[in-house]
Every structure is written in C-alpha cells, then in structure tokens.
Amino acid sequence: MSAALKKIPVLILSPSMPLIMEGIDKAFTLHKLWEQPDEAAFLKTHGPSIRAIAGGFKKRLDGKVLKQFPNLEFVSNFGVGYDGVDAAWCGQNGIIVSNTPDVLTDEVADLTIGLLLSTIRQLPQADGFVRRGDWLNGNFPLTTTLRGRKIGILGLGRIGKAVAQRLEGFGVEIAYHGRKKQADVPYKYYRTLVGMAKAVDVLIAIAPGGADTDKLINAEVLQALGPEGILINVGRGTVVDEKALIKALKAKTILTAGLDVFADEPRVPQALIDMPHVVLLPHVGSASHDTRRLMGQLVVDNLLSWFKGKGPLTPVPETPWAKT
C-alpha cells in the first residue's frame, strides 16, 4: 500500500470482523474507538483528523455525532441496510456513504425461503419433537401448507426480486408493494400495503429501516392479512409494530410468524419467545462465512477505491457520486 494512503486516519467505532480491521490497518492508519481509555478526549483530539468511518454501527450516526469529524469524507457501512447512518445528512454535508449490496442477496434470499418453509411446516418444532422423544408417544401434529398460497412481498429490491424468483419455482402467486410500480416486473403491484395484505395470505417483509417504514406493518395490516395469514420478516425489526404483532398472534388474528429481525436486537419480546408456533432466528440472513467475508471485503474495497481517487464502489442513493 502507498505511503499516502497509510497516513489517512480511519475510525472504527466498535469491534468488527478481523478481515475489516486487518484490511484497514494494512492500508490506512486505523483507530479503534473502543480501545481508547477516554473516548471523549480521543474524539476531541483526533476527531478533526478522521477522514473515514467504517464498520457496523450500534448507535446511530446522526448529524450530532458526525459533526465531531469536520474532515470526514466517507462512511463505509457493513451491511446492505444503512439505517444506522443518517445518510441524508451525509449527503447534505458532502459525505459519501457506502453499503454492501449484491454480495449478500442470494444468501438472504435463501434464508428467507428457509424461514418461510420452517414457519409454514413448523420444522424447528418438528426437530424438537424428535429430540425430546415425543415421537415415541404419537405423530407430530399436521401443519398448514405452502400449496395454493398467495405471497405478498414488501420491498421488491435486489433481495425481494431474488426471493420472488425462488418462489416462482413453488408455483405460488406473487404480488408486491413498494413506493411505486416497477417496470418489467411480472408480479401484481398493490398501491397500498393494506390492499396487498387483504389479497395475500403470506406477507414477506424485506423493507429497510428508517422513519418511512417504522411500524409500517401495524394492526390494520395484520387484520387485513387474516386468520390464515403468515408474516415473515427478514428486513428490519422496526418495520413491524411488535406490540400489534403479539396481540394479533395471541388473538389468532393471523396464524403465525417467522422473524429474523426485531425492533430492539438482541432483546426479543418474551411474549414472542413464549409462542411455540412462532419461528425466531437471531438475525442470520447473511450470516454465512463466505457471505460475511465478501461483505467485509467490500467495506475495505470501498475505502480503497475512494481514497485512490476512483470513487465509491457502492454509494447509497442519498449520497450519489459521479466522477468529475
């Protein structure tokens, strides 16, 4: 790596995967905030010199936080979702934000199908049935089926399209809802989420977090989904009103749910844990060794590309970049 790159200070706020830290440390001057005995003093002294921040962010990087870095140029976010960064503020203040799309699309789509089948056919519960020896006392209860179901997808982006492509192989009817109808998409578009929920009996949420989607799946949507309805969420936990979901599950307003994400991770409401028919995963949509390596490398590669003057590889829409 060049001596010029090595002088550039890059900050990581909390422990990240070794590939990211080692890659940044090799190319740049790496600062690890969590290792500083006095974080406030460190930020006061070094904040003005920091030119990039990288990794995942447990606390939201909003304008108040980012103002501590007056010479910040780049935020390299680990993950396709970047609601942990105020990208709009960054765009207004000349800071580029990147994420890690595409490299995790297939992994998350595969997991979504697995979660859907696990929830419909109660596969984790069947596994427990065998392990506990309950099969010796009789057969596992019959489950519902994927056959004949209509699937509605909330968020037909890269991952949503990959999920839809996989669902086509099951011969199910597919619809979607988003901000606008997409050209060259063969699935039926619903202008409102409630309208789609009324027309389908499985709702798969792959929507990003943020103010626009907060509690988007609420009591009205769940009521529209109906008593045979199944909710699958692999997007962001904040998209679902968890209190409304718990109430709907208890009242049998919907049949069941499969959730990989939650509003206050890793804290999962005890009421959901206590429901034996609900399938719960610990946010593992992209959590395979291969995919996380690709994601981590993209975090590093975005930084390298930017500081070599080639521009960001995967800038987010709020911080577009065009080579001048």
Provide an overview of this structure.
It is elongated, with a radius of gyration of 22 Å. Helix 4 links the parallel strand 3 and strand 4. The longest helix is centred in the C-terminal third of the chain and has 19 residues. It has a seven-stranded parallel β-sheet with strand order 8-7-6-9-10-11-12. Strands 2-1-3-4-5 form a five-stranded parallel β-sheet. It is an alpha/beta fold. The protein contains 13 helices and twelve strands.
Q: Within the largest sheet, what's the order of strands?
A: 8-7-6-9-10-11-12
Rg: 22 Å
As residue ranges, the low-confidence spans are none
Q: Could you report the average pLDDT, rounded to the nearest whole number?
A: 96
Looking at the structure, what is the overall shape? elongated
State the secondary-structure class. alpha/beta
> Major beta sheet, specifics?
7 strands, parallel
N→C terminal distance: 25 Å
Helix content: 25-40%
Tell me the fraction of residues in β-strands, as a range: 5-15%
Order of helices and strands: HEHEHEHEHEHHEHEEHEHEHEHEH
Number of helices: 13
Number of strands: 12
